[in-house]
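Lecture 7 notes: from sequence to structure.

We start with a single chain of 525 residues. Read the sequence below before looking at the structure.
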Amino acid sequence: MSGCWNLLNYAETRLSQLEDCHCEKTCQVNGLIYRDKDSWVEDDHCRNCTCKGGAVECRRMSCPPLECPPDALPVHVDSQCCKVCRAKCIYGGKVLAEGQRVLTKSCRECRNGVLVKVTEACPPLNCSEKDHVLPENQCCSVCRGHNFCAEGHRCGENSECKNWNTKATCECKNGYLSVQGDPAYCEDIDECAAKMHYCHANTVCVNLPGSYRCDCVAGYVRVDDFSCTEHDECGSGQHNCDENAICTNTIRGHSCTCKPGYVGNGTICRAFCEEGCRYGGTCVAPNKCLCPSGFTGSHCEKGKSFTEKHLLWKKLREMYQWFHCYIDECALKIHTCWNDSACVNLPGGFDCLCPSGPSCTGDCPHEGGFKRNGQVWTLREDRCSVCSCKDGRIFCRRTACDCGSPSADLFCCPECDTRVTSQCLDQTGHKLYHSGDNWTYSCQHCRCLEGEVDCWPLQCPALNCEYTAISEGECCPHCVSDPCLADNITYDIRKTCPDGYGITRLSGAVWTMVGSPCTTCKCKV
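Now the structure, written as C-alpha cells:
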C-alpha cells in the first residue's frame, strides 16, 4: 500500500514540474535557429531583426546625417548599410567618388583619393557597335538597354531603382521624401501634419506609410474616400429620389441622378425612348413603348391591325372617288381614331376630334389631380425644378440660371455664387473654380460647392468582351481583339518570351528595346 502512495506522490511532483515548464518558441531564418529574443543583422547589413514569440520582426537601421569634409564624398562600402565619407578624386575638372572610374588612355579608378590604373579586360558584348553605350564613371561599354539596377545599385526600402541610358538612380516612392537630398534614403511624408491631404468636413486625417486615409468622425457615415456626412439619407430612405434614380450621400445631404435610360432632375425620372413612341404610344422603360390598341413594334410603328385598317380605308376611298358613292368610315369602324377622340365622317374620309377626356384636352394627371395643358409649376419637393404640362405629358427641367439677376437662387444656381469663400482650388493647387463648377481629376468627377471639393469615381460602362485596354489619357477600358494590346491579362511567371537578342523575359516583364530607347516592350503570355 505504501508503494502505491509513493508512486502517486512521484506523479504529482512530475505534473507540478511540467506545469512550471515554459516552452520556448524559436525562429528559423536561412537555415539558422534563433532563440526567443535573439537579435541579428540581416545579410544586407541594413536591418536589425529580433525573434519574438516565434515571429521575426525586422526594422531598418536609421542612418544619421552625413556631412563629409570638402575633400570627400559619401559612398556605399561593402558590409555597411549607411554611406561613409571617402576621399574624392579630380581629373580634368571632373569629380569622382570612391570606386568610380574614368577612361583616358587607360582605365583608372578612384581609390583613397588617388586615380589607380585598372587592367581588367572588358567582357564581349552581344550587340552591334552602334548599340554600344559607355556608362557614367565606367570604362567598359554595355549594350543599349542595359539593366544597371540588376548590378546591385543600392536603394533604401522607401526608394526604388530606375534605369537610365547610361546609369541607374534611386527615386523616392510616392508618399516619401528624400533625406538631406539623397533619394537613396527616403522618409514618409506626414500628409496630415503638412496639410497635403484632401480630407473634408467631418473627417480625421490619419497618416499611413507613403499615404494617408480620411476616417469619419464618430457618428458620421462615409460619402467617399474624403468626405463624411452626419446622416445616411440614402441608406435610411430619407431622400426624395425617384425610384429610377441613384441616390448619393453628400456633405450637406444627398443628390439624385437619373439612372441610364431615364431623363429628369433626379427627383422625377422618366423613361427615355431614343426614337420616340409613334401613334400615341407611351415610353414606359428605356427604349420600350406601350402601344395603343392596334399598334405594335418597338416604337409602335407597325402592326397587322393598323396596316389592314389603313389598306381598307385606302381601298374604300379609291372606290368612293371612282363610283362617287358615300362611305361612312365611322359607322363601319374602319377609322384609326384612338383614346378619347371621336370619329367624324367627312366626304371621302374622316377626322378625329377630342370633345372630352384628359387624352384629348391635353391635361396631365399629377399627384391625384390634373394640371391644365400649358400650365407651369415648381415641384414642392424640389424647388430647383420647373415642370410644364403639354398635350397630356409632363416635362420637367432644372431652373434656368440668370447670374445677372440679383434674385438668382444660389441654392439652385451655385455657379452664380461669386463669393471668394465659395471658390475652390483644384487638387494641384493651381486652378481656381467657382461654386457649381465641375471638372475631372484622376478619373474622378469633382465639383466645387460653397468652397468645398467633392469628388466621386467615374462610372465606366460594363464591357462584354474577353480583352480590354485603357488608352493613354483615358479612364475607362475599351474592348480589343488582340490579347497583346490588352491590360486585363493575368500574367503567369512560368511562361516566358524571347526578345530580339535571345534574352528570356518573364511574363509581364517590361523592358526598353535595344537600339530604340523610346520603345518599351512587354511580355504578354
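The chain is about 10% helix and 35% strand. Keep this in mind for problem set 3.
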